Amino acid sequence: MAERVVYGRKWNFRRHEPVYPISPAAAAARDARGDRYAVALAEPDGPPEAVIEVSWRQDHAGVWFLDGAGRQTLLYEFRRAGDRLFLHSVTHWDYPDGGDGATRIDERRYREDGSVRRIVTDDDVEDQVTEDDQDVDVSAHWEAVPRFGDWASLARRDRG
What we know:
By secondary structure, the protein is mainly beta. The chain is built from one helix and eleven strands.
């Protein structure tokens, strides 16, 4: 994954830059207090590949994956439970060639009991479908809360 790490209080997805950039030390202090901050992971001279938004006070971490145009294509949302995180939501956006607006959004909301709600919105056919499922194995949705600066686990795009 990326070699360059950029911190900010938040991330501006339109401008592809941090809102109120902060140093790694300031981000670590925010992490320790549970305050919100953002982490962008990028190649040395490239745009961010992933943006992680953390707010431990709200027991939340979100990981946005971006395409080459800087558009949000995939979001993993985690909820903290003690020293572990549970992946409770996965959203994927599909964009038409060259377009800025997503035409299809596929969101899956997971519960610890194995129930899943899938909502697919398809603008091309002007339709939204909601499906519910039970007894889904969510054991792979758990992982340890990362230490500050150890972003590799959260920034895994492929989660099988």
